[in-house]
Each structure stands twice: as C-alpha cells, then as structure tokens.
Amino acid sequence: MTDASTPLIVGGDRGPQADSAPRPDADLLDGLNPPQREAVTYRGPALLIVAGAGSGKTRVLTHRIASLLRNREAWPSQILAITFTNKAAGEMRERVGQLVGESARGMWIATFHSACVRILRREAQQFGFTTAFTIYDSGDSRALIKRLVKEHEGDAYGLTPAAVQGKISKLKNELADAESYARQANMSDPAERVFTAIFGDYQRALQRANAFDFDDLIAQTVYLFRAFPHVADVYRRRFRHILVDEYQDTNHAQYALIHELTRPVSGASSAEPYSAGGMMIFEPEKAPELEGASLTVVGDSDQSIYAFRGADIRNISEFERDFPGARVVLLEQNYRSTQNILSAANAVISNNFDRKDKKLWTDVGAGEPIVGFTGYSQHDEAQFIADEIEKLHRAGVAYSDVAVFYRTNSQSRALEEIFIRSALPYKIMGGTKFYERAEIKDALAYLVSVANPADEMAVRRILNKPKRGIGDVTETAIARFAEDNQLTFRDALASSDALGVGPKVQAAIAHLDKVLAEATALMLPASGEITPPTAVAEGLTLLLQKSGYLDALRASRDPQDEARLENLDELVAVAREFARNNPDGTLIDFLTEVALVADAGDLDDASGSVSLMTMHTAKGLEFDTVFVTGVEEDLIPHRISAGEPGGPSEERRLFYVGVTRARKRLYLTLAMTRAQFGEVSVAMPSRFLQEIPAELIEWRQSPGDVNSRGGSGSRALNARRPGGGWGGRKDDPPALAPRSTSLDRFPNKIPAKVRDNSEMQLAAGDRIRHEDFGEGRIDAVTGEGAKRIAHVRFDSAGAKKLLIKIAPIEKL
DNA sequence: GGCGGTGGGCCCCTG
DNA sequence: GCCCACCGCC
After folding, report:
1. Any idea where the UvrD-like helicase C-terminal domain is (predicted)?
2. CA→C1' distance for A464 and C3 (Å)
C-alpha cells in the first residue's frame, strides 16, 4: 500500500535511506484503524486528513512524523509542523519526542507566528529591518493607530481606532498593503481617502520603529518570499515535509505562506551556500529542479470557528483543486467521547445545511446522560457547577480533569467569584493576559527601549512612567527636536539640555537617558563580550529600580499596586526561568517569547486546578468532565453573530467544538437571568438545546422548572427534581420568568466590597449562618492564613467548602 | 502637569 | 459594572 520508494526528493539532499524490512515504523501502526494507518503511511505530494473531533488527529500527525524519521525518509531538520496555538505546538513536540526521542529536537514544531518570527529574525536585514525588531501586539498597534486617527482627524469621517485597526488587520490577512489598497480604493469618498492615509502612515511608522504587528508576521514573510526568491529557496530546500494542523482555520495569508513554502525550487538562485539555522546548505553545482515539499494538512470544517478573523473555509474545501492528485483520508471514528455526547454533537451540527455529511461514532457505549441545569441567575448557575465539581472530586475525579467553558470572557467573573468562595482551585486559560497588564507592558517597554531604540512607541510609553513631570508638551518637544536633528526619539533623550525645558524636567530626562544607557551596557555589551545568561533578569531589575518604577508603586496607597509589584516580581522570575532554559538566550529572544506566549501560565501546566476558558480556547483540548455554561440565546449563538453572514452556523460549530471536548461527562448549564452591562436581563434557553434529542439530557433543573416554580428562594434550598421538564416540549417554548416574583430575592450579585474574616476563629463543631445557604455546622477547618477553608455541612444546602476570609458568614 | 470626578460606551472569539 | 476619555481645578 505504501510506496516508500516514491521519489519525494529529486536532488542532492535526499534523506537517509532505510535498508529493508521489517519497517522500523511498524510499531507506530499498532492500534491504529485503517484510515489512520493510511494517514500515517501515505507518501505523496499532498495529503488532506479530514479529522472529526476526537478522531485521533494528533496521534496520526505525530505518528506520521515519527514514521518519516524512523524510516529515514527525512532528517528532523527537514520537517516543519505548524499549529495555531502554543499549547498545540507544545503537545505535539512532547508526543513526537516520546516516539523518537532526541532526534525530535531539530524539527520546527511551531505556531504560524513563531515560525514566521524565526524566519524574519534571520532575514529582516534583507528588507529594511534589523534582527532586533519589536513585535507589536494588538494593544500596541491600537495605541499607534489611535494616535494616527487623531492626527488625521479620522473621527470627523466616522473612523474609530477600533474600526481602522480591524480593517487594516483584515486587509493584511488578504495580503493587501497600503499601496495596493490605495490603487483600488474609492478616492472620491473622503473617509476612504483618510483611511488610506492612516494605513500608509501606520505602515511607515512600523517600519521606522523597526516593528511588525501580528498580522505582519505572516504577511511580511509572504512578501519576503515573493520579493526574494533566493531567500524563499533556502526554506524550500530545507523543509521537505510540511504539516499543518487545524487547516480549516487558515486565512489567506497563511494559505499563501504554505503555498510559497511548498513551491518547487526554481534553481535560479546563486550558488552560494546559505546558512540556515546553523545548518549549512550547499547547493549542487548545477542546481537541478527540486520538487515542492510534501504537504500534509489536517482539518475539520465542522470545527471552523475563526471566520471572524479571516479564516477561509475554502482553503480546506478546495484543497483537492489547489493540489491536484491530493489524497484525502477521512477519520470518523471517535476515541474520545461517549455515544451520548457524540449523538448530541451530531444532532446539533446536522442543522448546518452547508456541510458534507459526516457522523462521528464510537464503540465505547452510551455512557452517562448529559446533565442539564438552569439557574435563577449566573451565580446560581455557578454555584451548581461548584457544588457538582466538589461532588465529583469527592468521588475521586481530579480537578485537572474538569473544565468549564463559556462564550465570552466576561462570563468568567461570576464563576470565579463563586469558585473563590467555594475554595475550589481553578485556573483561567487565556483571558486577561498576564502580558497585557499595564505594569507588565511598562516593564517590557523598558526592555524594548533598550533592545530596539528605534521603537518610538516603547520609549514614549515609559517617558513618564513613573511620573516624572514629563507631559504632552515635553513629549512633543522631544519629538520635534528628534526630527529637526535627524535623531531617533530615543537618542534625543541624550540632549535634554537642548530641548528648552525647565531644569526639573531636564534632569528627569537626563536621568532616564542614563538608566537606559546603563541597562544597554549590561544587556547588550559591545560585540565580542559575553553576557551572562542572567543579563536579562538583571537588566530588568536595574531598569525597574533605577527608573523609580518600583519605588513609585511601593509608595502608593492604592491596594492594587501591591498586586502590581507581585506581577513585576513574577516577570523577573519569568526572566530567570528563561535564562535557565535558554542559557544562550538574548534579550531579543526573551522579548520574542513574551510577545508570542500570551499567558505566563501557558508555560507551567495547570495541574490540580479546574480549567476555565472560552469555547474558542477549548479547541484542540479534551477533558473527562466538561461544563458548557451560559447556553442561552444571545450568548451562544451570540447576539452579534445573528447579523453576520455565516454567523449563526459558525456559532453552532463553536457549540459543537465545546460539546465534543468532553470524554465522559457533559453538563449544559444556563441561567434565567443574567447581568450584562451592569443590569439584569432575562435570558432565553439557546436554540441549540432544542436541537439535542430530549432523551439525551437529564435535567436536574430545567428552564420549565425554574419558571413554573417561580423560584421560592435559593436553588440550594430546593429539592432537586430529576428528569422531565422542558427538554422535549419543542413547540412550547419556555415562558419568560416574570421580573417580579422571588426571582429578585435570589442573590444576584456578590458584594463588591471584599469582606475580611481572616480574624474569625472557627473550629469543628461550631455553628455558623451563611447569607445564602442558611445555618450549618463546621466539620473541619483546613489551610492557613488567608487560605483557611471551612468544611461546612449546611442544614439544607448540603456540604460545602468555604474560603473563610471572604465567605458571607457569621458565627452563631 | 497632575489629580479627581463624571459620563459615555461597552462585551464576541486569537496569536 | 467597569474602563477610559475628557474636563475643570489646583
């Protein structure tokens, strides 16, 4: 079946050859079903693996790579595997490592963005950047765009920074640049004209700052390959096997990048040896034509959930047309979930009309029923989840095997509040990123000001942080002086005496200049000298101390500044950790890692905690127990999606992704009322609930229950009724709960004021009263200090754990 | 130039 | 309900 002798590589750099049978990869095929085997063993120019959720996609990919290596069909350095998330890349690296050991190290297993950064760092000088370029995250680029919109008075034409940023991003994902856009724009429309001007200025500002934004990382790499074929050929020669995960989520720029990389080598390049990644590549005297790399893509159009950011589903649906002769392999057997979960998922997704029919199946049996629950408020919903997780935990389920999903990040707050109260260990994945915190961005701006002094944005950011009396007027004076004297903004700081500012301000500027120079000497010494690995951590500490940043936070009375200091300590710790893991790592390397790894927590795994995340973040992950929360109209499907073409079906796919993450237990929860924008509104059950056959869901409390009873108080005080209820009554949509009734009595909000019971003395046997749960008896007290936990048996609400410090309790 | 008060907009999802 | 832009005052 497998044609191992297919001449994949015509040319001098063919991989080492295997001698003869038995196949060294035989054990890699053990336990694979026939389509999986074919996906591992097929050899040819192009392979599309259509992999349903949980069909063993990662297994197939990693085994395919291992098989190439073990059969000596490829060197590790000839393999490029691309994923979308750092997490997926990390997992793939680990699993390939388990299969082939040490040799996994020469491979590129990277996200689109990190692969492009590696290429750009090497080639930046080819087109007017330096290797020290900065990566602007969306916050950075928004700040820059905001300034440009203001300069161009864009608001007079209805151009908001957010809209401009979105449009630029979209254009870059379609590989349009400012010039090409200007050529076809409708210039009689003044708004178009201003937008075009802003776009152009933005791109020039990036170039001047020696910076790329996230979209540029991809688009500029494509541009580089197209403009400099001899550079592209270096990578085409190097990567003979390219594998792309989640192909249904690629946008046009990413598609073009893959196309560039898999083109045949033209052979028109010069005969110099190039050094790529420390690997010298010598071209043969008479460069012969070299076939394009073999391409393997894996995807599932039912899991395409990124159309909103430019993902083009046609990339996968037209793969066979793009790559004639491509083999297609379908993986439909699911190894993850129970049949009940799959039946629900199949039922929901079959409501999308524009799809190829595909049905996941399993042979593990029906499993437990799906559990439904409707709370009175989002806090009631969260309390049910916390209680249920505790119950599972007591029955032996590890916290780390449980995940809670939601549609929007703002939904995490109610869950967090209840989880903290319940002393339930949890971890938010994604969400407000560590590196997006203001103090972290400030600290990084200090580092960037040293690493890439051309980055004016970074220098402007730290100019008056901490407050040193440098305001708008002075900032403008520095900018003007820089322009007049052909200096960078950073270098202008050295001439504080020539700015014509007051003595105090002048001294402040001089001091900042001195601190930056000192840190530069420490972290970027003159060539030849060796920097110790700890230079980054030391330089960061020096900058934060001598700039007065830490002192200002310490002197502050704002209680949040204490947390900011802790975050900065954490950043220094990350720098030290980085030095340990990368003894040769430079300041630039550190900044790259920080720019591409959005969350410091991505590095260390959330062992021992429940994982909270959006359904988008959940893609590619799996858990024994999954709670999909907020299953309400206007949330999933989201309100805004209704008006977008393809919006509702994308929402359905998103829900499908959430549901199919569950291995054994799936909970679907919702609330009858939900606070949004600070006010409480009535929520309707999601249409997706009605698409699931009623017999699959066991309602602990159905939307009907909540309505009919009207809520005679806290759910926790009511007996739970199993089954029945609303699930089956399709033509009888649940009536809205009246706004009056005792619904309002249920605690819909958590007191914003942080309570502090740390002094409360509690011991086993004591009786307490809780605001929501009523009276109960303490079984035990564990933990210490701020983390003391009371294990309480409430008279009517059952057993709960409470974080004593903040629990709304009183001793009786 | 810094600070505190106020009112509008907002919250969809990512590297 | 929270963040941020803006304004008026010191």
Report:
1. 339-620
2. 21
Domain count, chain A: 5
Q: How many helices (H) and strands (E) does chain A have?
A: 29, 24
Would you call A220 a catalytic residue per the annotation?
no
Catalytic residue, from A215, A245, A300, A302: name it.
A245
pLDDT by residue (tens digit) across A4-39? 333 333 333 334 444 445 667 777 778 888 999 999
Q: What tens digit of pLDDT does each residue of A275-302 get? A: 444 444 444 444 557 888 899 999 998 9
| Same domain for A498 and A576 | yes
A437 an active-site residue?
Answer: no
Q: Which tokens go with A610? A: 């429940």
Check which CATH number belongs to the domain holding A227 and give it. Answer: 3.40.50.300
Same domain membership, residue A582 and residue A514: yes
Residues A231, A312: one domain?
Answer: yes
Tell me the per-residue pLDDT of A231-275, one tens digit each, with 9 for 90 and over: 999 999 999 999 999 999 999 999 999 999 998 887 654 444 444
**Separation of CA A376 and C1' C4 in angstroms?**
33
- Residue A279 resides in a domain: no
What is the structure's pLDDT at A385? Answer: 95
| Nucleic acid strand B within 7 Å of A468 CB | yes
Split at pLDDT 50, 70, 90, the class of A405 is very high
Both tokens of residue A666? 């799936």
My answer on whether A589 and A622 are in the same domain is no
Same domain, A541 and A617: no
Pairing of strands A767-770, A809-811: antiparallel
Which bases along strand B come within 7 Å of a protein CB atom? 1-3, 9-15
Note down the domain range covering A379: 370-433+607-705
CA A255 – C1' C4 distance (Å)? 38
Q: What residues contact A415, with CB distance under 8 A and at least 6 apart?
A: A382, A385, A404, A406, A426, A612, A629
Q: Let me know: does A402 contact A624? Beta carbons within 8 Å.
A: yes
Q: Is A303 an active-site residue?
A: yes
Rounded to whole angstroms, the Cα distance separating A620 from A87 reads: 9
Residue A737 CA and nucleotide B15 C1' are separated, in Å, by 42
Q: Is A137 a catalytic residue?
A: no
Residue A422 lies in a domain: yes
Measure the CA–CA gap between A496 and A494, rounded to whole angstroms: 6
Give residue numbers, 99 to 118 of A, with CB < 7 Å from strand B: 111-114
